[in-house]
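Today's session is about reading a structure prediction critically. Students often jump straight to the picture, but the first step is always the sequence itself: look for stretches that repeat, for charged clusters, for runs of hydrophobic residues. Only then move on to the predicted structure, which in these notes is written as discrete structure tokens rather than atom positions. Here is the chain we will use throughout the hour.
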Amino acid sequence: MKLILSLSCAFLVAGCAIRPLPEHVTGITTFNIVMQIRCETREAAFNVLVSGLANNPTVFGEPARTIAEGFRDRPELMHEFKPALFTGNAREFVDFFWNTGIAYNFSLDMTEVNDFGANINFVQNLTGSTTTLGLGGAVDRLRENKRTFTVTDDFKGLLNLKPRTYCDGHLATGENPIYPITGRIGVELFVREFVRVALFTNLKDNSDYGGAPTMVDTLLFNTYVSGSVTPKVVFSPVGRAFQLADASFTAAASRRDIHTLTMGLSVLAPPPPGTAAAVSGGRQLFGRLLTSRGGGTRKTAAEAVDQELTRQALSGRTIVVRP
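Below is the predicted structure for this chain, in token form.
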């Protein structure tokens, strides 16, 4: 409650940004938001792979368990984690998820409203009656900024991020209930469920392009903060001329942040070289509603996100296809 009141007061004093941005409220820029989510995803990928190997010695063997437990105790060495460290089922498991593609589509919508009003009353005392004259005015301002972009990654690239200090100071330590996208958003639960689904459905026999899984989550965070003040001064008029009786000033400010993160994962293997689907060559990728860069599983993750964005755009609409 104190935080909300503090934010409200801050908006009233300084909530006049021409271009509303995340840092005006939290001090965290768009760049830092992206870094935090990438670093949380990096940690999630590492934890899921390591725990999968360490917790299933009957499937992956004791040597794999020993190696995984060594990494679990030394997360700062995650850049040394690689499939070549393992053999047999363990190597197959890490290989399968090593190139998992990730696509993040961010939509940051920030709206700021500042309303100011003034009211002045004049009074004239006459014999047996009182005449009142009221004057008022208002200025209402609304500013909105919507920022949309897409970033792609893969597990291999995240675990080998350079410089090695990339995530130092940029990994959120907990959730932020007021401004959720600036804190932890539960990426590890998403990654863990994706790995479980991929293994449970036995889709690693990916001989057919289009046969492996993708999974997309859409997170929407809506934060609304508002506040107002209405000071008033009352005077004691004397005499019969119009004199100032009272004056009041109203200031109201509000800030609404609607942040949407659509995140997709894919272990879909790239098509064989030379096929029509491989023409992009890892260059610019054009979807229906987004543009991104990358090839292989990054491309299929971006396509899965694009499909979800298309579904959202068409939700509630009826489309008639005529032959």
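Discussion point for the tutorial: Residues 1-14, 203-211, 273-290, 318-323 have pLDDT under 50 and may be disordered.
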